[in-house]
Amino acid sequence: MAGATFEFDGTGALAIINEAAAAVADPKPMLRDIGEYLLLAHDRRFASQSSPDGTPWQALSPAYLKRKKKNRDKILTLDGFLKNTLRYQVNDNELVFGTNRIYGAMHHFGGSIDVAARSQQAYFRQDKKTGDVGNLFVSKRKSNFSQWVTLGAYTIQIPARPWLGTSEDDNYAIAGIAMRYLLPNSGGS
C-alpha cells in the first residue's frame, strides 16, 4: 500500500502563538498604543467639528456667536480646554479614555442649565457731557455709574454635539493595532 508522510515543523506557529499569548498576558503596551490613537482621532474630530459617525455638530446659536470673541469659527472650542484635557489611563487590562471636565458630558449629550433669579450690582459708563448711560456692561474699574439689577430665572438649552467615541474607521484602526500585537509576524500593517 502506497502512503504519504507529511512532516510539520510547528516552531514558527508556536512562536506566533507564544507572542500572542504574551500580548494578551500583558496588554498594557497595546492599550497605550490604542490610547495614543484615540488622542489623534479626537484631534481630527475637533478639526472636522463632527460626531464619530461624521454628522456635523450643530452650529452655534446666533446670540452666542455674536458675543464669542475667540475661535469664532470653532464649535466646542473657546480656549481649547475640552479638547486639551482628553487623556487616557491604562490599568492592568483596561483602557479608560475621556475628560475630567464636567461640561464634556453636557456638550456630548446635550441638556439644559437652569439659572436662578438673582440681583447684582451692574456697572456702566455714563457720558459726562450728556449724562446718558450706555447699555453695555463694563468692569467695575472702568465704570462711573452703577445700579442694582434683578435678572429673572432662565434656562439655557445646550444641543447634543457628540464628540466622544469612535467611528467605523477608528474601529478598524484599533483592530489593526490589536492585530499587530496579537499576530506580530503576520506581515499586516
UniProtKB/TrEMBL annotation:
<dbReference type="InterPro" id="IPR006522">
    <property type="entry name" value="Phage_virion_morphogenesis"/>
</dbReference>
<dbReference type="Pfam" id="PF05069">
    <property type="entry name" value="Phage_tail_S"/>
</dbReference>
<protein>
    <submittedName>
        <fullName>Phage virion morphogenesis protein</fullName>
    </submittedName>
</protein>
